[in-house]
């Protein structure tokens, strides 16, 4: 839930999702669910020559399990708070 | 999956019931009575919250296998009258029993399923499903001849279970399969009943009745014709019921289920807690909106066979058309076979198991306390909101308060805020220095500038009658008045320094404690409850004590090198903790802490392993070197950002005596020039010296702490003077070496190289960075100047003479950019103005 | 003290917790390694890192199938979420 919570704060921000097939999609995060499925709007693909089929796609839904990385701006993350949240979650899990 | 199938199957069965008796409708309405549902839902909800989720699963398992007989009593107890009826209903028994049964099922088991599956979309489907449920139960019982033979304790539940297993074999015909599918819902429901706890009142005969019914059931079930008949009727009946239900019962049901769930989205905790199922239901609604609608429609249109097909799921339901009968038969058989094979696993999960899983899924989406599972998002958005507010209102002081309060409440100060805080402190320090310098300059104008005339060699303005080109610098280091400190006592105990793992562990413990404490502070009782406040305060205090102990500040000073406390604030993680700790510690403890910190300052990584001075061209460094530098620079930056503000805050609370004591400790326990050669050292000394000066010159209004206006104790003043003099004299010979630019020249390129580096933009940026670093040192020497006695000032100027001239020359050098030149002049003037001089005096 | 430290560590994730806020090294599937400052993790080993350097070890193959000497590709990312199913090990 921590990561889900984390992603919720990134909604409406531009992120880059790198999939396990090396396709990198940049777009505005519109929504995320607890499986970390991701919906992106206004997408662009990092390497359009390699993935021409993506050219026409303007928004997409990405199944969480195919994600390798998600890159985001550092300023959109409150790292101190995030660490605290992680500690809280770790503690919750132990109870 | 059984749940879905159950839905489908339910339709025909229910129809059969209806056909049997019009009264059944009463029964339906009865089961839909909101009260019963409520009770059920409540019971379920209660369990959810109180018990570990696992209890559910266990209870179900037990129910399935055989146990939980007491539960059976309860479950059937509700139905008491109904039970007998139920079993008979398949054979179309007396109206009353059936109705009763319907009610019971509806209330207990079906309520749950109903709530889970799309009640809102179509009330009818639910009604159907419920009917099906209870109808299915009897039918399956009928199939199993075993049931009656069962021992009493096993009761209906066990019988049903067995039936389930046996059924597929028994009911080979397509029609027969339907009941088997239907059976699924029943056992789970029975199992779920116990788990759901509150047994409905009025169950007396259940066991006997059940057995009797079972016996009865066996007979009618064998005839497959009966069910079909019922089904035929069922369609009509279903429609009628749909009509009726939409009119009445659903109404009652609706308020409980569809509405609250809609709102009880994952984030809304209370919704789930209160209405348990309803929220689940809402979720399911959203996930399978077509579920409720699709099932009833297909059932109506296709007739009996469709139900069978529905159960199989994968197969397309055969439409009953006369020409295709043979084909259908074959299909049915295949379907039946398939169903049988699938039915092997029927009821592997009871409805409570399914509830359990649903709950696991849902529990991830909703909790009673949004701060528990959604802490980050909640707090992050709260912070964001407050930040937006503060941005909107600008520098309004109330906003600052809000921010501060939030920070406390949040428990996690934002990096941004800290960044600002760090910057603020540095600006504060420099403004302090500036003020002191300005003040001093004014004094000096009046007083004797004569003594300093020519101190810089040639002075263009003023009295140049007798310029003294060089100063004879009195390097009289007289350490007679060496201050002493009780902290110097050797304890003799010595331990190894903490290992990295120990440090990390201790830090995590501290973080946990701090988080708890912050949470505690957040949960402050209302100000009216005096007793509670007292308790709360005590609890907080206890926590603070724990934290204090874990900080290990009170360990003997020389217990290890580095001291355990220093070990704790060496990592960046510990540094980040520092300001959060200070917020909770009482003043005397913070002062103790600062004393320790000052005494062991050299043990700090940022001092002991201070990053080497920046070089004009970093491309000359090896990669490892660069990485190492970057790491150490980052550590230093963090220290300045997180620890120094706290240090400054504590220093500002100290009186002159304490400040003198701190400086004495530092001078005594460390080689001050080494400390002063680091940025953290400069920051510490600047804080101490400027604080002392602002205390001494009480007339200077210091907006930072207006409460500091008591007159200075002469004894303290004397102590301060002695300490400072000693400090200054120790430092004097090393003063020029404190400047990073001097060091950089020496270290890397020799004199002059640094001056030449101003051409490409990268070097320019590094140069500017260098000037900033220089400014810190200039600020420090300016405070030295302000604090120094007259003769010491002369010595100070003498020590820095070359540096001053060098800097001024560099500032006037044509190759120096304007921006940098200005910075250089500003730096030098910071110091010179403190002495009543100015860089413009220098030729 | 070491025992005390160990006593509080009952499961592997406790060790990861010690590295919160510290630079960690993570080995990933697909011959990737990353280092970065750990800011969050969960039971799936989903992690959030900052100041990340990713290293990909590649072995290119010539047209006739002979492997070329391995080469290394590096990337820097300021903030990165790594999905846990790719994580092989975490070390501080």
UniProtKB/TrEMBL annotation, chain A:
InterPro entries recorded: LSM_dom_sf (IPR010920), Sm (IPR047575), Sm_dom_euk/arc (IPR001163), U6_snRNA_Lsm2 (IPR016654)
Keywords (A to Z) from UniProt: mRNA processing, mRNA splicing, Nucleus, Ribonucleoprotein, RNA-binding, Spliceosome
One Gene Ontology cellular component: Lsm1-7-Pat1 complex
Source organism superkingdom: Eukaryota
Domain annotation Sm: ranges: 2-76
Alphabetized Gene3D superfamilies for the sequence: 2.30.30.100
Keyword Ribonucleoprotein: yes
Any single biological process term in GO: mRNA splicing, via spliceosome
MF GO annotations: RNA binding
Record's subcellular location: Nucleus
Keyword Thylakoid included in the entry's annotation: no
PANTHER family: SNRNP CORE PROTEIN FAMILY MEMBER, U6 SNRNA-ASSOCIATED SM-LIKE PROTEIN LSM2
Function comment: Component of LSm protein complexes, which are involved in RNA processing and may function in a chaperone-like manner.
Family named by the database record: Belongs to the snRNP Sm proteins family.
Protein name: LSM complex subunit LSm2
Lineage: Eukaryota, Fungi, Dikarya, Basidiomycota, Agaricomycotina
TrEMBL record, chain B:
InterPro entries from the UniProt entry: Pat1-like (IPR039900), PAT1_dom (IPR019167)
Protein keywords: Cytoplasm, Nucleus, RNA-binding
Species whose genome carries this gene: Kwoniella pini CBS 10737
CC per GO annotation: nucleus; P-body
Biased composition range(s): Low complexity: 15-35, 135-156
Full protein name: DNA topoisomerase 2-associated protein PAT1
Start and end residues of each stretch annotated as Disordered: 1-44, 63-229, 242-269, 294-322
Entry coiled-coil feature ranges: none
Lineage, top ranks: Eukaryota, Fungi, Dikarya, Basidiomycota, Agaricomycotina
Compositionally biased spans, kind Polar residues: 83-93, 101-116, 220-229, 303-314
Residues in mRNA decay factor PAT1 domain copies: 4-227, 336-839
Domain of life: Eukaryota
TrEMBL record, chain C:
Gene Ontology molecular function, alphabetical: RNA binding
Single biological process term from Gene Ontology: mRNA splicing, via spliceosome
UniProt keyword terms in alphabetical order: mRNA processing, mRNA splicing, Nucleus, Ribonucleoprotein, RNA-binding, Spliceosome
Gene Ontology CC terms, in alphabetical order: spliceosomal complex; U4/U6 x U5 tri-snRNP complex; U6 snRNP
InterPro entries xref list: Lsm3, LSM_dom_sf, Sm, Sm-like_LSM3, Sm_dom_euk/arc
Pfam families per UniProt: LSM
Domain Sm: 11-92
Highest taxon, organism lineage: Eukaryota
Compartment(s) where it occurs, according to its Swiss-Prot or TrEMBL record: Nucleus
Known role: Binds specifically to the 3'-terminal U-tract of U6 snRNA.
Protein name: LSM complex subunit LSM3
Organism: Kwoniella pini CBS 10737
Gene name of the encoded protein: LSM3
């Amino acid at each position: 839930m921590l990561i889900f919570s984390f992603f919720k704060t990134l909604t409406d921000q531009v992120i880059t999702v790198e999939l396990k097939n090396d396709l990198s999609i940049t777009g505005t995060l519109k929504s995320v669910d607890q499986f970390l499925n991701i919906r992106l709007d206004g997408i662009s693909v990092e390497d359009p020559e390699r993935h021409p089929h993506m050219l026409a796609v303007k928004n997409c839904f990405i199944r969480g399990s195919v994600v390798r990385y998600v890159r985001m701006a550092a300023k959109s993350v409150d790292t101190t708070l995030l660490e605290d949240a992680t500690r809280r979650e770790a503690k919750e899990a132990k109870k | 999956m059984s749940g879905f199938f159950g839905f489908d199957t339910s339709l025909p069965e229910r129809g059969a019931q209806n056909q049997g008796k019009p009264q059944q409708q009463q029964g339906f309405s009865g089961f839909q009575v909101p009260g019963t549902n409520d009770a059920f839902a409540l019971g379920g909800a209660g369990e959810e919250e109180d018990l570990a989720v696992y209890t559910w699963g266990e209870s179900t398992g037990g129910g399935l296998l055989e146990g939980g007989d007491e539960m059976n009593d309860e479950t059937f107890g509700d139905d008491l009258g109904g039970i007998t009826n139920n079993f008979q209903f398949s054979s179309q028994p007396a109206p009353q029993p059936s109705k009763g049964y319907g009610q019971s099922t509806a209330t207990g088991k079906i309520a749950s399923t109903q709530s889970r599956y799309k009640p809102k979309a179509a009330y009818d489907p639910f009604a159907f499903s419920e009917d099906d449920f209870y109808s299915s139960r009897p039918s399956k019982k009928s199939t199993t001849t075993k049931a009656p033979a069962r021992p009493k304790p096993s009761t209906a539940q066990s019988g049903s279970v067995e039936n389930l297993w046996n059924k597929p074999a028994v009911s080979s015909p397509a029609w027969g399969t339907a009941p088997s599918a239907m059976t699924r819902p029943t056992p789970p429901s029975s199992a779920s009943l116990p788990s759901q706890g509150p047994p409905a009142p009025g169950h007396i005969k259940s066991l006997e009745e059940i057995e009797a019914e079972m016996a009865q059931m066996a007979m009618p079930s064998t005839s497959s014709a009966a069910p079909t008949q019922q089904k035929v009727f069922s369609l009509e009946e279903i429609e009628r019921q749909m009509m009726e239900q939409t009119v009445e019962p659903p109404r009652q049901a609706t308020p409980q289920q569809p509405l609250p769930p809609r709102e009880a989205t994952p984030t809304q905790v209370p919704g789930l807690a209160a209405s348990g199922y309803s929220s689940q239901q809402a979720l399911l609604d959203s996930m399978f909106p077509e579920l409720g609608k699709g099932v009833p429609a297909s059932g109506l249109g296709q007739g009996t066979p469709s139900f069978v097909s529905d159960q199989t799921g994968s197969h397309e339901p055969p439409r009953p058309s006369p020409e295709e009968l043979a084909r259908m038969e074959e299909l049915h058989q295949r379907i039946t076979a398939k169903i049988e094979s699938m039915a092997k696993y029927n009821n592997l999960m009871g409805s409570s198991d399914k509830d359990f899983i649903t709950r696991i899924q849902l529990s991830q989406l909703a909790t009673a306390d949004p701060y528990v599972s959604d802490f980050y998002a909640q707090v992050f958005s709260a912070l964001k909101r407050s930040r937006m507010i503060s941005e909107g209102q600008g520098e309004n002081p109330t906003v600052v308060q809000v921010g501060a309060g939030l920070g406390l409440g949040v428990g996690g100060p934002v990096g941004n805020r800290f960044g600002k805080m760090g910057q603020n402190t540095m600006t504060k320090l420099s403004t302090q220095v500036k003020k002191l310098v300005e003040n001093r300059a004014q004094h000096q104008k009046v007083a004797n500038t004569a003594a300093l005339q020519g101190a810089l060699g040639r002075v263009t303005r003023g009295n140049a009658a007798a310029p003294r080109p060089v100063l004879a610098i009195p390097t009289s280091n007289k350490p007679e008045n060496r201050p002493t400190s009780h902290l110097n006592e050797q304890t003799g105990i010595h331990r190894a320094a903490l290992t990295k793992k120990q440090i990390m562990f201790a830090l995590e413990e501290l973080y946990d404690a701090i988080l708890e404490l912050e949470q505690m502070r957040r949960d402050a009782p209302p100000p009216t409850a005096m007793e509670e406040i007292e308790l709360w305060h005590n609890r907080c205090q206890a926590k603070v004590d724990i934290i204090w102990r874990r900080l290990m500040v009170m360990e003997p000073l020389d217990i290890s090198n580095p001291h355990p406390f220093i070990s704790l604030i060496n990592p960046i993680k510990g540094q980040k903790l520092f300001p959060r700790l200070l917020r909770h510690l009482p003043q005397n403890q913070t002062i103790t802490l600062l004393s320790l910190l000052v005494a062991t300052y050299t043990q700090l990584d940022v001092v002991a392993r201070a990053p080497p001075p920046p070089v004009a061209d970093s491309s000359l460094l090896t990669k490892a070197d660069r990485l190492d530098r970057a790491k150490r620079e980052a550590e230093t930056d963090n220290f300045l950002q997180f620890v120094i503000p706290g240090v400054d805050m504590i220093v500002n609370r100290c009186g002159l005596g304490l400040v003198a004591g701190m400086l004495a400790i530092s001078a005594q326990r460390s080689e001050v020039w080494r400390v002063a050669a680091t940025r953290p050292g400069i920051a510490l000394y600047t804080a101490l010296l400027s604080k002392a000066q602002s205390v001494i010159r009480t007339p200077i209004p210091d907006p930072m702490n207006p409460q500091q206006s008591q007159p200075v104790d002469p004894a303290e003043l004397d102590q301060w003077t002695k300490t400072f003099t000693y400090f200054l004299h120790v430092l004097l010979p090393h003063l020029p070496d404190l400047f990073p630019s001097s060091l950089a020249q020496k270290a890397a390129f020799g004199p002059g190289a640094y001056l030449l580096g101003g051409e490409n933009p990268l070097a320019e940026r590094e140069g500017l960075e260098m000037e900033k670093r220089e400014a810190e040192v200039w600020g420090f020497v300016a405070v030295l100047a302000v604090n120094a006695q007259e003769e010491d000032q002369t010595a100070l100027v003498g020590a820095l003479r070359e540096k001053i001239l060098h800097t001024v020359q560099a500032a006037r050098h044509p190759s120096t950019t304007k921006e940098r030149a200005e910075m250089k002049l500003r730096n030098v003037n910071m110091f010179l103005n403190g002495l009543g001089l100015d860089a413009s005096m220098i030729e | 003290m070491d025992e005390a430290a160990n006593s509080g560590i009952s499961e592997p994730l406790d060790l990861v917790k010690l590295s919160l806020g510290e630079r960690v090294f993570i080995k990933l599937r697909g011959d990737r390694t990353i280092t970065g400052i750990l800011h969050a993790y969960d039971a799936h080993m989903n992690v959030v890192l900052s100041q990340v350097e990713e290293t990909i070890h590649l072995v290119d193959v010539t047209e006739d199938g002979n492997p070329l000497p391995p080469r290394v590709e590096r990337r820097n990312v300021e903030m990165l979420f790594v999905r846990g199913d790719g994580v092989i090990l975490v070390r501080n």
